[in-house]
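Subject: complex prediction, re-run

Hi both,

The earlier run crashed halfway through, so I resubmitted it with identical inputs.
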Amino acid sequence: MASTAQLLDFLTQINNEIDDVSTQYTTQLQAAHAKSITNDDTQEDMSKARKKLAEIDQWVAVAKKQRLTAQENYGRLDFEMPIPQSVPVQPNESAYQGLDNSYKIAQMMLSQIKEEVENYARTEQQSGAWTDRIMALIAAIPAGILLTTYAVPSLMAFALYLNLLVVLSVILGQKMTWFKRLIYMLPFLGAMFIFRAIGSYFIFEGINTTALFAIVLFGLTGWFLSSGKPSFMYQPLKAFIRQGL
Amino acid sequence: MQNIDILQSYLARLIQAQADARYYVEQLETQLKTQHTRKVESAATILREQTEHIEATFSAPLNQPRQRVAGLMSRLKYASAPWELTAWEGFPQFITDDAVMGSLRAGIVNGVSFPLLGVEQIPMLLPVIDVGHGLIFSQKASKVQGRALLQSLATRAVLQWANPQTRFVFYDPLGAGANFPFQGLPESMRGEVVLTEVDELDASLRQITDQIRRGDSSQRVVFCAVDVPSRWSPDALTRLSTIARSGVTNQIYTLLHIDSDSDVQGGYDFSDILDVSSVIYMDDMGIRGHVLGQDFHFTPDSPPDNSLLTHLIRKRLEAR
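This time it finished cleanly. Structure:
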């Protein structure tokens, strides 16, 4: 015979009997599962490695820009981009070590490139530019003599001559081919003759206003060009000349 | 060497360093993936071994009690089976010698389960044979549910005890027999018809009380009545008291559905039979059972559908 009460008593008793055992069983199983969970800690290492590679990529981009600038300054366009070997020349024992070494080498090379470019620029400013300018000055003397004797022997002529010297010194002071220098000089020479014509037409008694105007204008232009400042004037002009040629 | 050549050599070394770095990053990625795969495989192996060890350790302490429970549930089988065809597959061949017989399922006890033991539902069992009677008190709207539960209990009684040594008596004064659709039983077991008249009831109860008077327990009698005390004579109520007091010892049992809204003639209060019965109350306070001094809230069964009932009775008689 069975009643609900008897059934409940029986089930409760059995349930109590195995409750502790079941708890232990579940706890041990959960502990085993918890132990078996393996975190993917390789992600952190990979992330670090990719970060280093990304830095190297940036450095190469910077170095390529530096190279372009240097090529322009030297006027040599015959260099080709180096092609690397696909497998390292000196293999390392571990990928970690290899990456680390490559990182250090890349860092060092970028530093060397920057230093080299800076050295070049400094040398150009200090010596190369001035020697070229002196050469330009000497080259401009015959033209000055020609102008002062052939054109109006006046204050305006003197001003034009002065300006020509400045412009020539700037243009000739740039590191470029002689053909380019000649091309650069043409607009200045043209402008100079136009001003000379205007000046000879508007000559007031005692004061040559056009000459004064020309002195100021060309003086400022020359100064700006030779000094490279302000950049908002110098850089567009430089770009314009480059594009034009 | 001119400056530009030096510059070019630095750039070449830088670009080579970049290519080397790419190569090493690829190498590193492959190495780390391999390492991680090995680590995961190793962890899986350890887990499998540990799980096997833990399961081996806990197998006996966990399974033996569960087997005892499974054994009991197996013995209960049809006594606790719900009215679903799948639960009755194989009936009645699986009624073994140690099967729990004599208890009737009334429904499912509310809110009790033992997931640890794989027992989701506890059947509400009314012990009848050698213990007592089954009464259902219902009122108002719950009367329909009460009649349905009585029919379900009567069906279970028929399926358990239908044999030549058992006689069923059904009294359905208002439903004209519709509450006891057991035409599939032989007349020797269920009587010629379902009783519907007072004098038929009186005569039948007289036979039963005569059996008690003779002390004859050779034939088990199961008396089922619905809508008690509608159309019950004072004499029938008096005989009911006799059956309540002495019926169980003479293998006479009653399953009654009592309409609590009906006036009982002569102030009959069922107190005689209440003491020796499992009682189910269906009223505004819900459905609850009082069995062997304990109370349970439960969800009552409804009777099986006709096709299942016919099928099960046929199977029961075939196996007899």
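The radius of gyration of chain A is 40 Å.

- K.
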